[in-house]
Amino acid sequence: MDIDKIHNDGESIKKMLDDAGYYKTPEDYNPDLEDNNITFSNAYPIKAFEKFLGYYDSDNRIAYNPSISMHTDFSFCLTACRYRKIGSKDTVVLDGVSNEKYDKKARFALNYFKREYNINGFFDFYIKRYRNYGNAKGLSESSAVAASASRALIANVFGSDASEDNVFVSRYARLVSGSGTRAAQNGISIWLSYPKMELKDCAAFNLGKNNTKLYYGIFPKYSDIPTDNAHKIAVNSLFYEKWVNEKYINIKKLILNNFDVNDMLKIAENDMLRLNSVLFSGGLVIQTPESIRLLHEILKFKAKNDGLYFTADTGPSIMILSFDHSLIKEFTENVDDSYLNGSYNFNGYKQKMNDFTKEANEYFIKIN
């Protein structure tokens, strides 16, 4: 892979974003820690248009290419974060469970964060996901977890001004999940990431609000296929370099066209198919017989109806989008698959916040 070429393409995209007014010079803040301080946050997941797989620099979580997404409301995440001046270790509880997998992710992100700001002490995280569906895979829940946990941490360490700086929050959400970088922004956003870039610029920048004239929804599908190694598998694919190079071409065109939503819908659909092909070439099949059957139904419908789009990330849950609600209605009424409408109401978390706050405070007292 020609890293120098990709770096230059990334620098070009950064300049284009700056010239177009999307780029914001990342600010920094000074820690102001208070023993036993507890802060709260929330976040919603994203669904990618221009996707990413593969880290150029795993230690700093820098991806090979920028990526673009929109916010969805299929679920949300609430986080409580407590700082302790004295303790033995950082702790993480997700949905009432603590295990080595969560601890490992938290240790990586927190150790990185503490080293950067020379922070002593420990953090306790109480995190809970709220879904509008049953068990499913590929709905980007990890992006909401990363963004929510990052914002709660930033609020605890730096205060409210820093926690409201989405660019700053996104810089640390990426340490938990690359997609979480974009989930730290609102609406449509781009994660600026490319080889050999300046670390402070590896953050998400807002591209505008979600287009509320766009109808969307998802078919939640479950899979027990492990995708933990998807990033490594993708990078080793014979098709990976071509896939990445196409992304830089696409993003430059999108910037020139002011991120036209129609263009992004076409990219989302094509990139979903390419993502599956790249992983398949490495031996990872992320679709299931059920999701493949549904994709065949979508393709047959699209052959007779213009204006319906589909996409998916690293999972079998299929999202459909259209500016024509009648197309979505017609299609969903003629398949038996469970379907969940998306909306632009991102205030649902407020109904759960009081109960969550009580739960978190009781948990922190118990482990004190």
From TrEMBL:
This is Mevalonate pyrophosphate decarboxylase. Coiled coil: none annotated. GO terms for biological process: isoprenoid biosynthetic process. It comes from Acidiplasma cupricumulans. Homodimer. GO terms for molecular function: carboxy-lyase activity. Keywords: Isoprene biosynthesis, Lipid biosynthesis, Lipid metabolism, Lyase. Pfam families: MVD-like_N. Residues 43-193 form the Diphosphomevalonate decarboxylase-like N-terminal domain. InterPro entries: GHMP_kinase_C_sf, Mev_decarb, MVD-like_N, MVD_Decarboxylase, Ribosomal_Su5_D2-typ_SF, Ribsml_uS5_D2-typ_fold_subgr. The keyword Lipid metabolism applies.
